[in-house]
Amino acid sequence: MAITEHDSAATDAPQQVKKKDRTHWLYISVIAAVVLGAIIGLVAPDLGKALKPLGDGFVALIKMIIAPVIFCTIVLGIGSIAKAATVGKVGGLALLYFISMSTFALALGLIVGNIIHPGEGLDLQPYDPSKPASSNASVDFFMSLIPGSLPVLPTLVVALLVGFALQGMGKSGEPVLNGIQAIQKVVFRIMMMIMWVAPIGAFGAIAAVVGATGWAAIGSMAILMGAFYLTCIIFIVFVLGTMLRLVTGLNIFLLLKYLAREYLLIFSTSSSESALPRLIAKMEHVGVSKPVVGITVPTGYSFNLDGTAIYLTMSALFVSTAMGMPMNLGEQIGLLVFMIIASKGAAGVTGAGLATLAAGLQAHRPELLGGMGVIVGIDKFMSEARALTNFTGNAVATLLIGKWTHEVDLDQAKAVLAGERPFDEALMEESMH
């Protein structure tokens, strides 16, 4: 299903261009809002602190949508596991590898976060749902219009039970799964509508935190972004590169060069979804068999989100440290387990990473939600590294699983990566029209 949807999206060129343009404007708006918020926070600290309700309102909107996002993605995610596993060796091996690598990436994010302690000294104010957001009557009125959130952990348990029940029902459960898939589209459309308010939320949150702490906030956010980018580079070059060399004998840098055009596409859209059809074509050209590519790449887009995994744990540690309430080891492990489950199935949806992060914080330490507004401001700055890491992880996974199942022509792969058998862009253009 994933291939068909993306292929059909790819064939509709005008629609795709329009979507890219809209995302582009959202990206620019958030950057402009962050810069303006930081300037106001530095120049007029009192005004900056007074803008905090804008950030609180956006966090409340994110909270409102958490439970529906988690429910739909978990139920459909379990359905995807059932379908992928029935394909046999390739599906089972792919899922085992994806879960292992996502867990490793989550753990790596925790390790780096514990080493650098991002957010130290910011002293953000805890979120108290029982306390009014402001003494201003107008602000209180608008905040009261936003519905409250459903508890996350019970939602997760119900979603797991529903998912496994539908899986056990087989064919008779498919209409319900299709219905939940339709509901998920509505939920993600609402999420996209909320994301268009992100510039306002980011503006208020950044103005408030910079107004309260000055340059310390800017430095702290820069440290988190720098550490995140560095962690992603280490993960790609050393972790994925080493596995690729040991299993297939191929060079990670040659693979990165081979996928250069896709990286430019991802960088311009901040989403690895945009390059899905091209990755399928390029992985087949590099010598991996069509069945392996057809199973591994689309499944990986939901289950193999290495960049998102690193982002989730590092951002959670940033928020807890910035609020002066660092998580102990037990809480960090609990968060890691929650993120492993909750991060599945929401790939490529703008804001889904924020919703998953908010869900993890609400499930473990609800008072930490007050720091989410700052993450909203810098989320866009980290989205490229996240998408590029996810994409590279799926390209490497396809080659590894191809090798393990003896479904890859390594001579072809070496020749292609060496530049001896270039990818025919003309064929790609024909298939997309």
Largest sheet: none
- The percent range for strand residues is under 5%
Number of helices: 20
Shape: globular
Secondary structure: number of strands: 0
* Quaternary organization: single chain
The percent range for helix content is: over 70%
Question: N- to C-terminal separation?
Answer: 19 Å
Unreliable residue stretches: 1-21
Secondary-structure content class: mainly alpha
Provide mean pLDDT, rounded.
Answer: 79
The H/E string reads: HHHHHHHHHHHHHHHHHHHH
Brief digest:
The chain is mainly α. It has helices spanning 2-11, 13-43, 45-50, 52-86, 89-116, 137-144, 152-169, 174-195, 198-213, 215-248, 252-258, 260-269, 276-285, 290-303, 306-322, 329-342, 352-364, 372-404, 410-417, 425-431. Helix 4 (52-86) packs antiparallel against helix 5 (89-116), helix 4 (52-86) packs parallel to helix 7 (152-169) and helix 15 packs across helix 17.
